[in-house]
Amino acid sequence: MIKLLIFGQTHWGLHIAQAINQHATDVRATFIRQGEYVRLLARPPRSDRLVIMRAGYRVGGTTLRGRLFDAYWALLRTALADAAPSHYWLGNDVMDTIREAEAGTLRSRALSSTRDDLHIAAAPWLSGELELVGIRAVTAYVPTVTNYPLIASPLPSEFRVLTYLPAAHFEFYGGETILEIARRLPNIPFDVVANDGAAVRGAPSNVHWHGWVSDMAEAYRNATVVVRIPAHDAIGATVVEGLVHARHIIYTYEVPFVGRVFPATPEAVVHALESLYAHHVAGRLELNIAGREYALAEFDSNARADRLLSLIRTIA
Question: Torsion angle, CA of 162/165/171/173, rounded to 10 degrees?
Fold first, then answer.
């Protein structure tokens, strides 16, 4: 039995552990909460096949929290001398590392000390960004526990745009740009999830706020296009899910069967939407079946888990 101990971001750490435990019988993953850090050093687990993983907690940061975790990680590696170390880069950790490298504040010696570890990136472009700071990372999408629809619903009779703008990260996900796009396209309704609009001022009347939506199936059925324009991303869940529902996608990254807009200026996104809308009005806009077939193969939950598990088994 391989023991995988996951440290780092609570949401993603728990998610990865759950997905691995659902897909494997020879790997047992446990997310280690901060309150258990000291106990783990005092009573380190014993196993012939032990892997430790940092999920979303980057190496070499200059914040006090980053320095403290780097110090803890060093102690942990001493206590668990036989454990295989790994790093799962999830998105913002890569962005912050690149920013610090460009600013000259990155603790590059600390990062360089991990070059022989296993580095995993949650999207291919994240692997490319990490190469800029001397880290070679293999790509493995974060495993999911999502059940995808067996068939895709027809496109709605009304052309509608779906977008994800979490209230806590409105600017990061291009909130003001989305509002400007909606102003320029007043005849097209925009459905916003993960935000009730209470803190947003000046939104046009064609923007509809749905708050947090636990089951997105209906949202995708009612959408023609999914727009996702964050400042930085791994592979966005709304992109994958939108493709699986055979919807058209406008995104800031290069993904097959997705319309890429970069930089995501209002002009660029409006142009992309107007092109799709013209096809809709002419009755020529069809389901994105090629995108659905690609997503079902590329982002299959079993394939994602198998890819990550093969890396864990190899270093264990």
Answer: -70
Percent of the chain with pLDDT over 90: 90
Q: Which homologous superfamily does the CATH classification assign to the domain defined by 161-297?
A: Glycogen Phosphorylase B; (3.40.50.2000)
pLDDT tens-digit map of 21-46: 999 999 999 999 999 999 999 888 88
Fold match flag (2-144+300-315 vs 161-297): yes
The DSSP H or E segment spanning 298 is helix 289-298
Is residue 230 within 8 A of residue 178, CB to CB? The reply is: no
Q: How far apart are CA 242 and CA 255, in angstroms?
A: 12
Structure tokens given for 172: 């990061």
Rounded-to-integer distance, Cα 208 and Cα 193, Å: 9
How far apart CA 37 and CA 260 sit, in angstroms, is 42
Q: Which fold has domain 2-144+300-315?
A: Rossmann fold (3.40.50)
Confidence of residue 146 (pLDDT cuts 50, 70, 90): low
Position 145 scores a pLDDT of 64
Domain boundaries of the chain, sorted by first residue: 2-144+300-315, 161-297
Q: Is 135 helix (H, G, I), strand (E, B) or coil?
A: coil
For 82-109, what is each residue's pLDDT tens digit?
999 999 999 999 999 999 999 999 998 9
Nearest by Cα to 258 from 274, 241, 270: 241
Count CA atoms within 13 Å of residue 58 on its CB side.
Answer: 27
For the chain, strand residue ranges (E) read 2-8, 27-31, 50-55, 84-89, 118-121, 138-139, 161-164, 190-193, 207-209, 225-228, 248-251, 259-260
